[in-house]
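Structural prep section.
Before we set up the soaks we want a predicted structure of the protein with adenosine-5'-triphosphate in place, mainly to decide which crystallisation condition to try first. Input record follows.
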Amino acid sequence: MNVPWAADDEPQTQPVVMNDDVVRVRQFARGLSQRCKLSLVDQTKFITAASELARNTLVYGGGGSCTAGLVRGRGRLGVAAVFEDFGPGIPDIELAMTDGWTSGGGLGLGLSGARRLVDEFALDTEAGRGTKVTVIKWAR
Amino acid sequence: MTQQDAFPGMVKLLTADGQELATGWVDRVAGSLKGRISRNELDRELTELYTALVEALRDGVADAHADGMSEVRALLTELSRNRARQGFSPTETAISVFALKHVLEPVLQDGSDQDIRAYLRLGRLLDDLGLFTIETYSRTREEIISSQADQLLELSTPVIKLWDGVIAVPLVGTLDSARTQVVMEKLLQALVDTGSEQAIIDITGVPAVDTQVAQHLLKTIVAARLMGAECTVSGIRPQIAQTIVALGIEFGDIVTKASLADALRLALKKSGVEITRGGGVGR
Ligand SMILES: Nc1ncnc2c1ncn2[C@@H]1O[C@H](COP(=O)(O)OP(=O)(O)OP(=O)(O)O)[C@@H](O)[C@H]1O
Ligand SMILES: [Mg+2]
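Run finished without errors. Recording the C-alpha cells verbatim:
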C-alpha cells in the first residue's frame, strides 16, 4: 500500500525491539490519533491495533520498526502506522489471519482483530523475507 | 620536560597560593549551586578533594583511573551520588571538578613554560575526573529511576478490601506483562489472606485492552476460580467495549459490570449481604 503521508507532517520511525518499545509505540499512536481528532472510540481502536502489531513485530518478527504519522487523502485527515520486520515472514497468510489461530501461546486475534479495528489494512509478507503491515484509520 | 617533571609542576600549581586558590574554587562552585548547598559543606567537600588530589600527585600519580587516585575517586563518587540524590543537574555536579581548572587559568597568562605544561597535564586529569563524576552521577540517577519504577509497580496495584469477603483491584494505566504478573499474584494472595470469595477487577483506568491484557485478565480470573473465588470485571468503558468486540475477544461466562458500584452490589448479594435503603428512622 502506498501511504499518503501528510506533506506538512513528517512520519516518525521508532524501533520495536523490546517490551518498552511497544508501550512507546502505543503512546505515540495515542498522541497522533488525538492530533488527528479521532473520536474516542476510534482512538482506542487505532491504539489497540498498533499495540497488537507492535507486539507481533517484536515477538514473531524478532524486532523491527514502526513508522507512524498523519496521512491525508480525499480531503480527510487520518493516522497511519507501518510495522516492518525482517524476520521469518508468514508462510500461510490465510491461516495467520484466521481468528483464534496462533503459532505461539496467544489468543490468535491480534492480526485478524487489528484488521477489523482500522479502515485500511495491508499485509505484505513472504516466508524468509519479513513482514510489513500497514494500517490507516481516517477521521470521520 | 619528562613525565616525572610534570608532577612537581602540578603540585606547585595547586599549592603555590593554596588558600587563595581553594577559596576561589569554592566561590565558583558555590556561585553555580546558588546556595543550595551550605558553604561549610562545600568547603569540607572540596578541601578533602583538594588534599587527596595533591597527595596523589605528590605520589607521582596523574592517571584518573590509577590505583593511587582511588581516594580522589571515592570522594568524587560520594559527591556525585549526593548531588544526584539531591536533584542537581549533571552540570552542577561536574562543576566541582571543572571549576578548579577555571581558577588555575591565570597561570596561562603569566606562568612559565613549565607551568603551562603542568597546567595542560593537570587539565587532562581534571577532564577525566569530571567525566568520572558525570558517569557516577548518571549511574546513580539510573538506580533512582529503576527503584522508583519498582515502587510504582507496587504502589499502582493496591488490593483493597471492600467488605468482608470482597476484595477489589483498581487497575490504572498500561498493563504490561510485568505489571499484570504483580496484579495477579497480589490478587490471589489477598484472596487467601482475607479469605475472600469475591474479587472485583476494575479497569476504569486502563486506556486500552488488547489481546495480551485480555489474556492476562482471563488467566487471573481462571486462577482465582481454581481457588474457589468469583471474579467480576468492572469499569469497561464504551470505547473499550467496542474495541474488545472488534478484536473478537470473548469473555465467555465472566461477569462484567459497567461500574465498580454495580460490581460491589453484585458481590455483596452473592455473599449474602442485603442492602436496604434507610427509611430515615430516628431523624
Ligand atoms: N510479524 C510477524 N512475523 C511472523 N509471523 C507473524 C507476524 N505477525 C503474526 N505472525 C503469525 O501470525 C499468527 C497470528 O498472529 P496474531 O497476532 O493474530 O496472534 P498471536 O500474536 O499469536 O496472539 P494474540 O491474539 O495475542 O495477538 C502468529 O501466531 C504468528 O505465527
Ligand atoms: Mg499478536
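Observations: Chain B touches chain A at residues 174, 176-177, 207-212, 214-215, 238-240, 242-243, 246-249 (CB under 8 Å).
Flagged for discussion at group meeting.
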